[in-house]
Request: fold
Amino acid sequence: MAAPARYRPSRRALALFLALVALLLTVAASLAIGSREIPLHTVWDALRGLPVTSGDAAAVLDLRVPRTVIGLTAGIALGVSGAIIQAVTRNPLADPGILGVNAGSAFFVSLAVGLLGVTSPQGYLWFAFLGAFVATVIVSLIGAVGRGAASPARLTLAGVALGAVLTGIVSAVRLSDPKSFEILQVWESGSLQDRGWDVAAPVIPFIAAGLLLAALLGPSLNAMALGDDLAASLGTRLVRTRLLAIVAVTLLAGGATAMAGPIAFVGLMIPHIARWIVGPDQRWIIALTVLLAPVLLLASDIVARVVLRPGELPVGVVTAIVGAPVLIVLVRRRRVSGL
Amino acid sequence: MTATMRGARGEVIRRPRRALAVTIALAVTALVLAFVALGLGDYPLDPLEVVRAAFASDGSFATTIVLDWRLPRVLVALLFGAALGLSGALFQSLTRNPLGSPDIIGFSTGSYTGALLVITVLGTGYVSTALGALIGGMLTALLVYLLAYRQGMQGFRLIIVGIAVTAMLQSFNIWLLLRSSTEVAMTASIWGAGSLSLVGWPQAWPSLIAFAILFPAALLLTRPLRQLELGDEAARAHGLRVEGSRLVILIVGVALIAVVTATAGPIAFVALAAPQVAKRLTASAGLPLVPAALVGAVLLLVADQLAQHVLPGSVPVGVVTIVVGGAYLIWLLVREAKGRL
Reply:
């Protein structure tokens, strides 16, 4: 069976190339734009270690480079985890933010910060993973109650409910303990502001591992899109694939949340756009998502820096304003379950 | 209480006696809890002392505490809970879906947005804030309905659209808060968590007057509501003006939410849970309005007492209801899924 004309390899390669160009442009913009405007050539000089004014050098090297790297990795992680959840649950409305995975992560981190007094990113990283894992398992279990696949709407509601409960407890912890208030306030809203290498460095290896796992899962995810029975008859080990998918989502969504706090809708939008461009092959969807998701997160972050000058908006606020309409469009389509 | 009977096909036959008994029991519970709540605090009083303090009005310290400090908050918790329960029952009947409650569909967030706009642009003031909340809630209701409408209304589409609109409005609210001055933002965000801690008599009176109009109005809607539950066709056959009744129900439902939101901020999930709990307690086919209001009153009073006296620090009651109500929603989803086995 030949691929339909619109999904031919040349078209897919072109899509990847254009996405790469967009990503490079966004990264450059993310380094240059902010409360202090720095011309691109100065950014370039600073990156190469050439002498520039100390203010510019500090802004680029100490603030914007780590911020951009965090936006890049968190964007990739959120997008790919969204693609995996959508493929495994066959649910077009799935997203680690909407399904409460990020809220689970934030919940365990806030417990660690508020009750155990953990303050270093290395310390609470493990709690972020634990929370993402627990939330993913809970939502999958709620979705799996009853016969047949969970309806997208029910899974979404379960995630929203779980997210509401966990976020409620987080704000209770935050409000009842002034000491943890500050750390958690930055954390609760999903922001790339004031995050340095100390936050990024310990997380990046885990996200890399999650991405590797996602790449390996690609073929099995393709089979699972055909339905459990057909996938099993094609030789896919369903339980193993599901478990590995949960591990990958845990690493990716937990890692992203550990760096940037709970950010929703990136994992919802990008896989849909990717599927629309390159067709239903999960390997291509994941590849394009890797390039496009950070474009969205970094662009949202740039908007977040600019709209309230000299203050900033949490980036999660921008992604919600962009992403919520996408959710409405998706649910208005005739067949919500159509993946 | 086993006043229910099974009909020939296993359906529950309604017994008005059970509904009445449950209603009375709920009212008594609410009253007893209110007296207990009046005695709780840094200066504890037993219920007998509360009664003495309330009726002696001899200007003693206990009287001041009970009548001036604790009574408004307890009263407001009861009435706001009742309003939320009523509003939830109206909306859930209207959408014919247990999840179609105003907080899930986004009206509460919309009310908050309206009120925030008024506070940040015009400054505070009870009437203008309440109006802002009312208009915000109405517009959100309209927007959600329009966006979810596509060859008819489908419950789950309404809810998902509500979730999306809520997410956008919450983001808009954060933006509003961040761009306003620190003072205004502080006032608005204390209020945004959904708290009764700032309620005294001056804040209680206007909402009491509003409820004096809205509660009877809601009860007058019982008949059209029951007819609408039978389906549009049947209701029309009974001589009901379907669209008109629906609009009135919508307005009363949003007005109830708006009054609560204007005074206490968004208090989530009471409107979701109360009607369903009431329905199960009374074993009735539809959503009973008075029991729903009473369950709401008991829920909010208990949640507020928990927030005040059991939890450390100053946790707003909205946080308590969101945790309890969210857990209830998860249970509801699991149960609904099992029902389809």
About this structure: The CA atoms of residues 296 and 327 of chain B lie 16 Å apart. The first strand of chain B starts at residue 5 and ends at 6.
